[in-house]
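re: ur question from yesterday

yeah so i grabbed the chain u mentioned. its 443 aa long if i counted rite. heres the sequnce exactly as i have it in my notes:
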Amino acid sequence: MPHSRSAIPGPSLSVLDGVAMIVGVVIGVGIFKTPSLVAASVGSEAMFIGVWVLGGIITLLGALCYAELGSAHPNVGGEYHFLSRAYGQSVGLLFAWARGTVIQTGGIAAIGFVYGDYATQLLPLGPYSTAIHAAVALLVLTAINVTGTPESKRLQVFLSALTVIALLSVMLAGFLHGAAPKVASSTTPPLGAIGLAMVFVLLTYGGWNEAAYLTGELRDVRRTIARTLILGTATVTVAYILTNLAYLNAFGLEGLSKSSAVGADLMKLAVGDAGAMALSLIVCVCALSTLNATIFTGARVYYALGRDLSTIRVLGAWDMRGHEPKNALLLQCTIALLLIAFGATTPEGFEAMVAYTAPVFWFFLMLVAISVFVFRRRDPGALNYRMPLYPLPPILLALAAAWMVYSSLAYAGLGSILGILVLLAGTPLLLIEWRAKTAGAGK
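ran it thru and got these structure tokens back, copy pasting raw so excuse formatting
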């Protein structure tokens, strides 16, 4: 029988397949950077581990919400589609603007700084070494994407496996290395400072929202989605807790807070300079892989925005020869370079980029959590999967997101204010577009 072009493949993923995909997406290079920043914001080792456990719980709540939304309203647009359907096209477009100018570009710059920190361990380039490495990587990878060079899925899988191997190596080195002297601490940080620690923790757990896209391919999704999400997030949480216990065992909380490349520093303690160089090289390769994938997907946001907004239609141009949104890639690179330059003027570029993206990201995530109630009331018959313990997951996720918005604005400094200003800069575009549509409808 001939195959139909419109045929849709049936569900083919088992629970184990789904768990492996979640673990592969979530575990990335952040675990080699953020623990030192988290350690600087908490008052004790117990609190340090506690925020990582809490991060795992919030991750599970978010995944449950996205699973329900994704199964009821499947669309490649993800959050853009959810927000547009729940609150109207204007909110969706504002999210697309925020993703293109704040969330995605800030993420690109943040990954660039992680790469730069570890590349500096291999090749120091002076006082701005981290920023220089980040900028060069961004320019080279954008140039490759502009030429239309296709990604290799096998390479991405290999690099993800390399990240997991590096993580296991760090765990082993941390537990085998002699324990650091324990220093009692009676510091009780304010709630907002703990919230800032959670911003870094949840950044490291980032990627759980991709679980929403598994709903169309899991076998017997109504029974297996909850099991898949619970096992996947539990696996990541256990891996992160063990890694951070290894860090604490080797450095103690104070020593951990002072490290800028904690994975390399730990390997240096355990097996010397050769081990540190080897881990730095692995993290650099994995960071470049993540950076390339983020550049690739991020440009599609600009392309979609250019297609929807006539005022910036130039971004909606597609280069048929290279099969790439060339203009979108170039604009994305320009904005990310400006953010790297801004980060270079701050004491910690990675931290500045997290501050830049956090309030905007969590504001829209709060809206996505609330949209669960909107869709439940508006179209309850569309639900293919109902999350357990409803309405607790969306309520708790919305409250956690609101806390993250407050914490990032109150404690993250200038970067968070800059992110809000860039978000607000997108509102005139919406007004111009609304007037253009109104004028067109009146003809």
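noticed a couple things. Residues 360 and 420 are 7 Å apart (CA to CA). also Residues 1-9 have pLDDT under 50 and may be disordered.
anyway ttyl
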